[in-house]
Amino acid sequence: MQTTENRTEVKAIDCSHFIDGEYVPSINGKTFENINPATEEVLGTVAEGTKEDVDRAVAVARRALRAEWGNMPLRQRSALIRKVGDLILERKEELAVLESLDTGKPIWLSRSVDVERAAYNFHFFADFMTTVGTEAYQQDDIAMHYAVRHPVGVVGLINPWNLPLLLMTWKLAPALAAGNTVVMKPSEVTPMTATVLAQICKDAGIPDGVVNMVHGFGETGAAITSHDDVDAIAFTGETITGSAIMKAAAPTLKKLSFELGGKNPNIIFADADLDDVIETTLKSSFINQGEVCLCGSRIYVERSIYDEFIEKFQDKAKDLRVGDPFHEDTKVGALVSEEHYNKVLSYLDIAKEEGGHFVIGGKAAEGFEKGFFVEPTIITGLNSDSRCVREEIFGPVVTVVPFDTEEEVLHQVNDTHYGLSASLWTTNIKRATRLSAQIEAGMVWVNTWFLRDLRTPFGGMKSSGIGREGGAHSFDFYSELTNVTVKL
Ligand SMILES: NC(=O)C1=CN([C@@H]2O[C@H](COP(=O)(O)OP(=O)(O)OC[C@H]3O[C@@H](n4cnc5c(N)ncnc54)[C@H](O)[C@@H]3O)[C@@H](O)[C@H]2O)C=CC1
Ligand SMILES: O=C(O)/C=C/C=C(\O)C(=O)O
């Protein structure tokens, strides 16, 4: 398959670590290959970090914290953070192409979501940081108490492959805004945009040593999470990895922020606007190949509109164009890697064994000699014990189940160890308010999905996360407070 159609002259890059303002190879010289998931071609090499590389990056980050960055006036730091956002926009096309090469996602999506949002993450926190206050209490005529904010210190930022630039900047911008220095570890599967981001930070004027990056696999991540001079870890990824990180971080009592997996429900009542439901459900099911932790992969539809929903939903979903990420009409690109492709296909086998019916899809997309393409898949006929209904598939695969009563659907919705998000569809405001409060999820969207305001608490409950990101929540995670009491 030819993936150069409509692509500008941007070339894939080799990825080195970024330590103390310089690109550097691994101390032991080891690298691994970065594969294009749409063509299976080698995009380049990636430095494979070891404990020694992490030690070096952490030492540099600690030094930088005590130097210019640690004493920089707020407005100056805010201006540098804003500049990073500006430079991301200046290099928008380059970053979008690299993101699509790495992830297999459609180029229009990289441009309109990943890169736009990456820039906005910096612009948002550049503004937000200038408005953040702390608490103060006057205790009669006895004492005045006020809190002083400090950075946490050296923070490890560990990220997955689904939204590489968006998620790295979502952590990096507030970490810098709060005055920390960082060691980032992008996913081994999608290393390119973070590599460019590190240089952008330097070009924006952020002092050397403040932003460091070490590439590598889980072992590299583990060298960060167990490092005794790293003060906090912000992690997005699989729930089981979150658990391993918690264990590794326990001996040094690191502060942790986890955004983990989800198995999010869409709950559709008969009184909802069905056209809106269909348009939004197409996105919540298949955007980014279903590789978004917020995707609504369990769809519950009130029985009286179930047949009509299935008819309209499958009618639109079957027309989604699967293929070349660089074709402007592509709606579903390649899955991120061969390993993930095999995982998603294995769930389609499980669905068959469990007696599921494929309304559409159910197999690898045809017509591709190379690349990891899977057909958008709608499965019905599975019961609530089915592994496909319970486990995170993280691909273009949804299950649809009818329901009769509010109580019944609420039980099914909450019958999971995940609790990230939900999308609830009804025009009955009382029902919307009642159910939203009972759904066990960190975020409930009513008559919409993935509508973001960066000031709001973002994150999950149960096995979907620990803590919240966004606005003051991010700022609190990346800060420590000292309470000062002055006797009057
Ligand atoms: N936001 C979400 O909810 C996401 C969930 N996933 C789920 O996770 C599955 C696997 O995706 P991966 O990217 O492999 O997720 P992962 O959780 O294994 O990896 C995420 C990041 O953590 C690092 N890592 C792995 N093991 C580590 C360890 N022991 N200590 C420190 N860092 C470690 C990885 O190198 C990567 O940078 C997907 O199939 C999907 O189901 C994947 C991406 C995002
Ligand atoms: O909008 C955001 O900040 C994040 C969205 C998606 C994820 O966190 C994810 O897919 O992991």
UniProtKB/TrEMBL annotation:
It comes from the Bacteria. InterPro entries: Ald_DH/histidinol_DH, Ald_DH_C, Ald_DH_CS_CYS, Ald_DH_CS_GLU, Ald_DH_N, Aldehyde_DH_dom. The active site is at 259. Keywords: NAD, Oxidoreductase. It holds the Pfam family Aldedh. One of its GO terms (molecular function) is oxidoreductase activity, acting on the aldehyde or oxo group of donors, NAD or NADP as acceptor. Residues 27-484 form the Aldehyde dehydrogenase domain. Coiled coil: none annotated. Belongs to the aldehyde dehydrogenase family. This is Aldehyde dehydrogenase. It comes from Oceanobacillus piezotolerans.
